[in-house]
Amino acid sequence: MTAENRITLYYSPQSRATGTRVLLEELGAPYDLHVLNMKAGEQRQPAYLAINPLGKVPAVRHRGALVTEQVAIYTYLADLFPKAGLTPALDDSQRGPYLRWIAYYGSSFEPALIDKFMKREPAPVSHSPYSDYDTMLGVLEAQLSKAPYLLGDRMTAADILWGVAFSWTMMFGLVPQNDVFKAYAERITSRPAFKRISAADDEMAAQHAAASGG
């Protein structure tokens, strides 16, 4: 991949962007970091709001085009590097289930998680995007009880997304630390790519805290 085709990842350590960086490492993708110190509020400054008006990371820029939203980013990057084997091809029978589980993260898990974190009463089941929290998690537990990964024995980008998310949400008590979820998260967090990025994040976060007087 030529220099102009390198991926720029708008990034802050120990954030949702961490999983995207882990995915880039797993894909063997050439990328550069545009680091934001979120402790200093750089994500809310005009320079970054011109890139993502929501002031959120991750975001990626590639070939002059900007991609935001984790679901879109994971799908895009995995498709960009098919030889890494982390995405089913368009004509693969597992393509639909793969997209299902990636979309489930954004459409069901994240809204449920925020309601739980904020201790808000969810909308009535008939109006809720995720039915109810226990049902939403139960669907995942049932799927992950069948095999090591969401698509069976085959790890995909969807598992990077979910494995990293589970590792964080279990740490903060938002997802129960049952045997199924713990084993699944450990399959991802024990991989070299996650360990490398986790160590780098710890160092970067400490630098940001010091720079912000924290």
3D architecture notes:
This is Glutathione S-transferase. It comes from Bradyrhizobium jicamae. This protein has 214 residues and is α+β, with helices and mostly antiparallel strands. It folds into two domains: 3-85, Glutaredoxin; 95-192, Glutathione S-transferase Yfyf (Class Pi), Chain A, domain 2, CATH 1.20.1050.10. 50% of the residues lie in helices and 8% in strands. A four-stranded mixed beta sheet has the order 2-1-3-4, with helices on one face. The longest helix is centred in the middle third of the chain and has 23 residues, at 95-117. The termini are far apart. 31% of the residues are buried.
Instruction: Give me the side-by-side strand order of the main sheet.
Output: 2-1-3-4
Number of β-strand runs: 4
Basic shape:
globular
CATH-defined fold name of the largest domain: Glutathione S-transferase Yfyf (Class Pi), Chain A, domain 2
Order of helices and strands: EHEHEEHHHHHH
> In the CATH hierarchy, what is the class of the largest domain?
Mainly Alpha
Classify the helix fraction into a percent range. Answer: 40-55%
